[in-house]
Amino acid sequence: MLRFNWLNATTLTLGFVFLYLPILLLIIYSFNESRLVTVWAGFSTKWYGSVFQNEDFINAAWVTVRVGVISATIATVLGTMAALMLSRAGPFLGRTLFSGMIYAPMVMPEVITGLSLLLLFVSMDFTRGFWTVTIAHITFSMCYAAVVVSARLVSFEKSYEEAAQDLGCTKFSAFMQVTLPIIAPSVAAGWLLAFTLSLDDLVIASFASGPGATTLPMKIYSQVRIGVSPEINALSTILVAVVSIGVITASLAMKRAEVKRKREEQLAFAG
């Protein structure tokens, strides 16, 4: 058993400081009265009001949320189907190629992915905008959802589905009534991961976007190139808060669902 000593405590502390000190400084300076980012002039929340009055930020945030929800939902559905194919189909011709094509976007440089998608949209004469950004986000986030769901299906007991089919369920109804509720936490985790990746993406969206499809990361980057303002700090703090609340809520919901599922399994075995 690993003992907790001063060396472990120091290493852990330094790791947390390295990860979270920049975020903490950003949050602190978002309440700075001065427009100069690095000069503290007193406590103020005026920059948060300025953010909510900035129509460019609001429009970019609305585009980002819509792209994230749509792309994460479609990517999770496709990723779940791909995970089922890999875990249930058994050996088939082209399995290695299929598996490699699923995992390839995870290691592919974003610049290459964005450039290839740009060439695809141009060659097919697609007007770049909201839907091209959505398609681009689906292509690279689907593989992450597939990996998350595959990890759960590896340890899934097929006997549950077989028992449901013995009781008269079709394969589809057995999946919907038995398999899906059990793997629901991993599906939700895959959706959250895909949504987070879409929310964070800058490079690929820059290649695939067009007029009227400026995402929030693109807007922030264009503003930072001119100079970091307290509005950017306030906006980033809001994003940190929203993501933190979302992750905590999802974690609690998945934990509660997992506890409920185990309790139902115990009652079923006891009965």
How would you explain this protein's 3D organization?
The protein has 271 residues and is mostly helical. It has a domain at 56-235: MetI-like fold, CATH 1.10.3720.10. It has eleven helices and no strands. It has helices at 6-29, 46-52, 55-88, 95-107, 110-123, 130-154, 158-166, 171-200, 203-208, 216-226, 230-270. Helix 2 crosses helix 11, helix 3 (55-88) runs parallel beside helix 6 (130-154) and helix 8 runs antiparallel to helix 11.
The CATH class of one domain, by name, is: Mainly Alpha
Beta-strand residue fraction: under 5%
**Total beta strand runs:** 0
Order of helices and strands: HHHHHHHHHHH
Question: Notable features of this structure?
Answer:
single chain; 271 residues; mainly alpha; MetI-like fold; 11 helices; 79% helix
Could you write a compact summary of the structure shown?
The protein is an all-alpha fold. It is built from eleven helices and no strands.
How is the topology of this model organized?
Layout: H1 6-29, H2 46-52, H3 55-88, H4 95-107, H5 110-123, H6 130-154, H7 158-166, H8 171-200, H9 203-208, H10 216-226, H11 230-270
Helix pairs in contact: 1-11, 2-11, 3-6, 3-8, 3-10, 4-6, 6-8, 7-8, 8-11
